[in-house]
Design goal:
The chain is globular. The chain is α/β, with parallel strands linked by helices and 238 residues long. It folds into two domains: 109 residues, Nucleotidyltransferase, domain 5, CATH 3.30.420.40; 94 residues, Nucleotidyltransferase, domain 5 (2-Layer Sandwich), CATH 3.30.420.40. The longest helix has 18 residues. It is built from six helices and ten strands; from the N terminus they run βββαβαβαβββαβαβα. It has a five-stranded mixed sheet, with helices on both faces.
């Protein structure tokens, strides 16, 4: 039947959805900051109950694997792996930036967003990677990867070679940091585009049919960078 639970926790958004054969059945999302630990398992349980499913009905769990927030990814992956272990079902992993690009394509195809010459544009989903750094990748209008994921610091010269030839569409919370840095007539910035579990559905269904699953025991999120713990500015012991 292909009943898949998809989990997205790579940014501040906590998003969970259930789909069957590539069709959305139900979704729950929150943009409350640092709410993954509080909301994720509650969202999963509520979705299952509200739609009349038991965990034994699930055929797979799909996880947004990153890049993104270290803590968010750890919480999402731990939950997904726990469900897969408990029910002996496969784990599917989706690149977060690819899912974001897929979501943008869906919005354009449904006319939710109108973009001229979209078919020749470069899609650039971006995730905030702390300070002035972003995680980004390039995709074409069919969702095919043009350039792999990188962590990079951008300046006013970034992407000029490409921008001279084609439109580049920037979106995601990382793009908000570079909106005032990249100035070109072919640079288009779209606000309020966040990762969502529903944008994983099509990609998850494809991998499910191809039986491209992860090793549940050894799977790790795609961090791209090592985790750096921050030191509180105030001395709490004073």
């Amino acid at each position: 039947m292909g009943l898949i639970l998809s989990i997205e926790t790579s940014t501040m958004v906590c998003s969970v959805c259930i789909s069957r054969n590539g069709e959305l059945i139900g979704i729950k999302e929150s943009e409350e900051e640092k709410s993954h630990a509080k909301n994720l398992t509650v969202f999963v349980d509520e979705l299952m109950k509200e739609n009349g499913f038991s965990y034994s009905d699930l055929d797979a769990v799909s996880i947004s694997k990153g890049p993104g927030s270290y803590t968010g990814l750890r919480i999402g992956v731990s939950t997904a792996k726990g469900l897969c272990y408990a029910k002996n079902i496969p784990l599917i992993a989706i690149n977060t930036l690819q899912a974001m690009a897929n979501g943008m394509i869906t919005k354009v195809e449904s006319n939710e967003i109108i973009i001229d010459h979209f078919e020749n544009s470069v899609l650039v989903p971006m995730i905030d990677a702390r300070r002035m750094e972003v995680y980004s990748a390039f995709f074409n209008s069919k969702g095919e990867t043009v350039r792999d994921v990188k962590a990079e610091i951008l300046d006013e010269r970034s992407y000029n070679e490409i921008l001279e030839k084609q439109k580049m569409i920037f979106f995601g919370d990382g793009s908000e940091k570079v909106h005032n840095v990249i100035k070109h007539n072919n640079a288009m910035f779209i606000k309020n585009i966040n990762p969502s579990a529903k944008d994983m559905i099509e990609l998850s269904e494809q991998l499910f049919k191809m039986k491209k699953f992860e090793d549940v025991a050894y799977f790790e999120p795609f961090y791209l960078k090592d985790f750096i713990a921050t030191i509180p500015k105030k001395n709490i012991f004073k």
